[in-house]
Structures are given as structure tokens and as C-alpha cells.
Amino acid sequence: MSVEKIESGKTIELDTVNNNLELGDGVTLVAKKETIVIKGSIVSRGSIEVEGNLEVASIRCKRGGLEIEGDLKVAKYVKIDKRLIVEGSLICPEVGVGGTLEVTEEIQSDDVKVGGSVKLYGNTAVETIQVGGTLKVEGDSNIGTISVGGSVTLEGETELESLRVGGTGRVNAGKIGSVKIGGSFKAESEVEVESIDVGGSVKLESDSKVGQVSVGGSFTAESELEFDTIRVGGTVTLESDSKGDTISVGGSLKADSDLELTGKLKVGGTVSCEGNVVVDEVSVGGTYKSASTKAKYFKIGRRGTVIGPVQADKIVISARATVEDLYGGEIILEERSRAKNVYGDSIYIEEGTRILGEIQYTEEISLEPNVHLNSEPKKTKGLPRLD
Prior knowledge:
Elements: E1 3-6, E2 11-14, E3 16-17, E4 20-23, E5 27-44, E6 48-61, E7 66-68, E8 72-80, E9 84-86, E10 90-91, E11 94-97, E12 101-103, E13 107-114, E14 118-120, E15 124-131, E16 134-137, E17 141-148, E18 151-165, E19 168-181, E20 184-187, E21 191-198, E22 201-204, E23 208-215, E24 218-221, E25 225-232, E26 235-238, E27 242-244, E28 246-249, E29 252-255, E30 259-261, E31 264-267, E32 270-273, E33 276-278, E34 281-284, E35 287-289, E36 292-300, E37 305-307, E38 310-317, E39 326-333, E40 338-339, E41 342-349, E42 354-355, E43 359-367, E44 372-373, E45 378-379
Parallel strand pairs: 1-4, 2-5, 3-5, 4-5, 5-6, 6-7, 6-8, 7-9, 8-10, 8-11, 9-12, 10-13, 11-13, 12-14, 13-15, 14-16, 15-17, 16-18, 17-18, 18-19, 19-20, 19-21, 20-22, 21-23, 22-24, 23-25, 24-26, 25-27, 25-28, 26-29, 27-30, 28-31, 29-32, 30-33, 31-34, 32-35, 33-36, 34-36, 35-37, 36-38, ...
């Protein structure tokens, strides 16, 4: 296939070209009809402008950019050193841009690599997007993998396999496989995410379903939440009913409604739940507050505080901790702890402990010396229950 050359600064009308084009800098191609069809490839030594639609085998712009006032359809690849602006749709298997990429309508591609920033105003169907700076998608998107150094904003309905961001990520709604972000992640509408790994903070503003969550700083769910595991170094805030398997928090947990866990609740600092807690195991280092708690195993740490009644198969109140009403199978109150009412099958109370209310048991009770009781323990056939 032969080569046709167009000198720098020229404006030329084209319809169909059966050859390759070699262009100088500042060339403008004008469609005689609606679309310019280039059977070969375009290579330029600078920037190009196209008035109309363009169909071509491949495009290479050296030290320049490309602006299309219409649709761009490329059979093989587009490689642009500076910026690529497409005011219509872009269909191309491989897109490489050194500077910025903007597409007004839809984009379809297997692989998009951009050194600077990307703005996609229409719907997006791309297998892989790699961006050095920022990515913004305003339309609906179906994407395999996003890898961005700076920030990502997905404003439409999203179906995404993997999101990797160095800075911040913000999505509207949709389904995401995995999220790994160095800074913060926010979902503004209903989302389903299989895994979240974020160094800073996570905020879910609407009903959400998430799998494995690992956050270095804070995690906030403002609406109903279903999850598998949440592990957070700092704080967890749950503003509506939440159901899951396990929560592990280094700092504090605040729940404004009911919390139901099939696994463990482990908190290094404090727990404050305005609703009821149903959980398999509880282990809290500091202060624990709930409307009520039902568990198989419950333990409060040394010098900890429990506000609200607790019912569990086994309850361990560590030394010098303060609790309220306890309902259990096996109950252990370690030295110098304090409780209100204690109802258990088997009760063991260490020295220096103070019971302010009554004690009822069905099987046995063991009291060390210097236990302070408000009334004598009472053996009974049945015990009060939170149910």
C-alpha cells in the first residue's frame, strides 16, 4: 500500500483513501460527506483535526494530539503523544494517549492506557483502563479492570471486576468485584462489592452488600448493610440495621440500630449499639453498650464496662470490670468485678466482687472469700431470660 503525504498546516477534503497517510503538523481533514474512510493507516508529525467521522486502520500522532468532531472508528490501534478528543463515539481495540483523553459519547475498547487524565461522558465498555492521573466516567460502565494513580469517579451504573486506585475512588451504584484503594472509597447509591481493601476510609451511603472488608482508618455504612467480614483498624459506624459474619475493630464500633452476626464481634476499644445485638462470640476490651445482647460467648476485658443486659451460653467478666444484668449458662466474674443481677446455671465469683442485685442459679455456685452480696444466692428450677 502506497503513502500519500499532506504538508503541515494544510486543510484537505477527503472521502475514501485507499493508501496510508503521512501528515505534517496542524493538518485538518474535512469529510466530503459524513465520514472519512482511510483504508490504510495515519502517521502524523504533530497534531491533527478531523471535521466529521473517521474510519481508519490505525493512527500514530508523534509529538501531537488528535481532535475529532465526530465518531472515531479504528481497526487496530490509536497512539497519541499528547491529547485525544473525540466529540462522538470511540471504537478501537487499543488506545494509548500520553496526555488526556476525552470522549463525548460511548467508548468501546479492549485496552485504554493514558498518562494524564480521562473524561468519558457517555457509556463505557472497556476491558482494561490504566490512567496515571484521574478518571471520570459520567455514563454507565461495563469495565474489567481499572488501575488509576490518582482518583476515580464513576457516576453511572457500574459493572466492574476490579478497581485499583492510588488516591480516592467514588462510585454511584452497581456491582464491583474487588476494590483496592490507598486513600478513600465512597459509594453514593446501592452497591454490591465482593472485597474492599482501603488504606484510609470507606463510606457507603445507601443499601449495600459487601464481602470481605479491610480498612486502615474508618468504615461507615449510612443505610442497611449485609457483609461477610469487616476488619478495621480505627472506627466502624453502622447507621442502620446490619447483618454479617464477623467484625474486628481496633478502635471503636458505633451502631445506631440492630446488629446481627453469625460469627465474632471483636473490638479493642468501645462498642456502642443503640439496638439489639445477636452474635456468636463477643470480645471487647473497653466499654460495651447495647439495648440487649444475645450470644454463645461473651467476654469483657479487664476494667471494662458493660451497659445493657447480656445473655450468653458462657460469660466471662474480667477483673475489675463493671456490668449490669447477666443471663447465662456458665458465668465467671473475676476478682473485684461488679454486677447488678446474675442469672446462670453455673456461677463462679472471685474475691472482691460486688453483686448489687440478686443471684439465681440452677446447678451450682462457687464464691471466693470477700464477695459482697446484696442478698443470698437462690437456687431455682428456672431462670429469667431476655426472650
